């Protein structure tokens, strides 16, 4: 797999224009001037760069989770450094919108360098893009235009601060719009939670727990055809608990049933639930229930 350490090398591979700045590239479609076309397809690659793009679909479907989204005006996609990406030519976009690419070192020494790591949507996959309403699209495009103006002017001592400030504003709006998207997709969120719980039921009932151990979040997300971060964020918005917390609560609930079988030791219960180390099971149980597994068993006996 190819990894590109510089922005110039990445853009050259993508068959896009060389950047005006060694660590920043802004491509914005203005009027009759379309966006340059990147290469149509690519095997897996990664870079040391962030990428923010807004594109409009002409052919093919871009899905949100596993459901085609209502808004077809604009779809924003966010990529973080060292994410592995690949694509083919099945989706065709208009040559309108924008693409902003910058090396992670461009943010060094700024508040955004830390803040950007907190935006979960950089870990979402392309089929969980941010879909914009027409008014949201106009707002985002206006910020991108301001960045483009500063990028193409004769850059001075103030240029970087202004561009970083505009990038920060763009990301704050993106975060707000993702919140809206989660709320508007409550039905999808409920469906995903139901599928998640059903998947856990099937995994436990199939006996895989004893053979393969506790399923990883990555396994669960892959089976549901969503990214790990998106699954966790969706469940968090819907229930207040992350994927890991849901999995832990499921295990604890199962543990309570097994603990009522007096012929099984605490260690046997832990192994049956897929825990490699009984001590970890006991710590988790006490953290969630406030009592140890043995105390829970004794308490139940008394009742």
UniProtKB/TrEMBL annotation:
InterPro entries xrefs: Homeodomain-like_sf, HTH_AraC, Tscrpt_reg_AraC-type_HTH
Pfam families in the cross-refs: HTH_18
Organism encoding this protein: Neolewinella marina
Protein name: AraC family transcriptional regulator
Keyword terms of this UniProt record: DNA-binding, Transcription, Transcription regulation
Origin: domain of life: Bacteria
GO molecular function annotation: DNA-binding transcription factor activity; sequence-specific DNA binding
Keyword field contains Transcription regulation: yes
SUPFAM superfamilies: Homeodomain-like
Domain HTH araC/xylS-type: 194-299
Coiled-coil intervals, chain numbering: none
PANTHER family referenced in this protein's UniProt entry, alphabetically: ARAC-FAMILY TRANSCRIPTIONAL REGULATOR, TRANSCRIPTIONAL REGULATORY PROTEIN
């Amino acid at each position: 797999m190819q990894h590109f350490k510089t922005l110039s090398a990445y853009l050259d591979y993508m068959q896009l224009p060389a950047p005006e700045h060694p660590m920043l590239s802004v491509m914005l479609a203005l009027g009759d001037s379309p966006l340059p076309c990147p290469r149509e397809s690519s095997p897996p690659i990664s870079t040391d760069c962030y990428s923010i793009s807004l594109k409009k679909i002409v052919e093919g479907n871009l899905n949100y989770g596993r459901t085609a989204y209502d808004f077809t005006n604009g779809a924003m996609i966010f990529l973080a450094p060292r994410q592995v990406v690949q694509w083919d030519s099945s989706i065709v976009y208009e040559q309108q919108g924008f693409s902003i690419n910058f090396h992670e070192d461009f943010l060094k020494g700024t508040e955004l360098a830390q803040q950007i790591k907190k935006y979960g949507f950089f870990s979402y996959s392309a089929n969980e893009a941010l879909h914009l309403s027409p008014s949201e699209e106009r707002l985002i495009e206006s910020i991108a235009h301001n960045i483009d103006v500063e990028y193409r002017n004769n850059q001075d001592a103030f240029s970087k601060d202004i561009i970083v400030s505009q990038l920060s504003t763009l990301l704050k709006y993106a975060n707000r719009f993702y919140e809206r998207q989660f709320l508007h997709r409550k039905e999808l969120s409920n469906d995903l939670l139901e599928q998640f719980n059903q998947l856990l039921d099937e995994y436990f009932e199939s006996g895989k727990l004893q053979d393969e151990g506790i399923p990883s979040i990555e396994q669960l997300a892959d089976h549901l055809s969503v990214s790990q971060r998106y699954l966790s964020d969706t469940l968090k918005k819907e229930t207040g608990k992350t994927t890991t917390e849901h999995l832990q609560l499921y295990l604890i609930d199962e543990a309570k049933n097994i603990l009522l079988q007096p012929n099984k030791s605490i260690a046997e219960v832990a192994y049956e639930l897929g825990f490699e180390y009984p001590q970890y099971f006991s710590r988790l149980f006490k953290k969630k229930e406030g009592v140890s597994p043995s105390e829970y068993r004794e308490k139940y006996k008394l009742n």
